[in-house]
Design goal:
- Two copies of one chain form a homodimer.
- Helix content of chain A is 47%, strand content 12%.
- Chain A is an alpha+beta fold.
- Chain A has one domain: Arc Repressor Mutant, subunit A.
- In chain A, strands 1-3-2 form a three-stranded antiparallel β-sheet.
- In chain A, strand 2 and strand 3 form a beta hairpin.
- Chain A starts with 22 loop residues before the first helix and ends with a helix.
- In chain A, 25% of the residues are buried.
- At the A-B interface, helix 1 and helix 5 of A face helix 1 and helix 5 of B.
- Chain B binds a DNA duplex through helix 3.
- Chains A, B: It holds the Pfam family HTH_20.
DNA sequence: GCCGTACTACGAGAGCTATCGTACGAGCTG
DNA sequence: CAGCTCGTACGATAGCTCTCGTAGTACGGC
């Protein structure tokens, strides 16, 4: 019995503001291989939004939900409902504003490691 | 009764090679506030070596040992014995070689957050 | 040779995390 | 409306992590 979130037709999800984004939280979010891969996929098409099910992850749906929540609560991604699907977008603008250059450096590092390890 | 580590006069500690350094490990190491602070202090004087006891951390010696081990095993710092003291140095060259620009971006982000939050 | 200092090892507890399975709600599609 | 798909909530479990205290080891100085 949720009091007042069903009427709008678009359930709202809590996101941290720019000021609430913590470096430790971002690093922790990205220190998990599954989440790092999600972020890399999102960054490949930065303007696009992808549903959770678009990603082919080696975990179950429950675990996927968990990882997306960690990413959202750390301020890395923004999630919005679109019908039954939940669309995910990288918060590149916010991250660049709070930590200029960090996201690019992280993505470059991840790409470099993926290349060395033979990952995609 | 350690078989053969006492004779050299300088006990050796295991460190990951450049190729063994993993981005996830580095991010995980830096996602702890205590360790992030250690790295910031080390980076402030990048050429210098500091003993573990040089840092004024809000945890006990046991916990300090633990944190330095995490930093060493993730490849962020290099530890060498010098008498009874264990000297710690940032592995800036190795990190820059494996993930160019990452360390600077991380340090800049940490400095920015510390400034905003009023930390030193 | 003995003591103090610096760090480690071990044990231990509280809390978080990643993972899963099952059951459920929200919204299309027929 | 019925059913399907997408995602959530909850419970459970195993493993890790951060923290500590105590006991122990290595080294330098007296």
């Amino acid at each position: 019995m949720p009091p007042a979130a069903t009427a709008s037709g678009a359930r709202e999800l809590p996101h941290p503001t720019r000021a609430e984004i913590r470096l430790e939280g971002v690093l922790h979010a990205l220190s998990d291989p599954v989440r790092l891969r999600i972020v890399r996929d999102l960054a490949a098409d930065s303007d696009a939004l992808f549903s959770c099910s678009h990603f082919d992850l080696p975990v179950t749906k429950s675990t996927t939900t968990h990882h997306f929540r960690v990413l959202r609560e750390s301020g890395v991604v923004r999630q919005t409902y679109r019908g039954t699907a939940k669309m995910n977008g990288l918060r590149r603008g916010d991250l660049d504003a709070v930590f200029p250059g960090l996201l690019d450096a992280l993505l470059a590092a991840a790409a470099r490691q993926a290349a060395v390890l033979g990952g995609d």
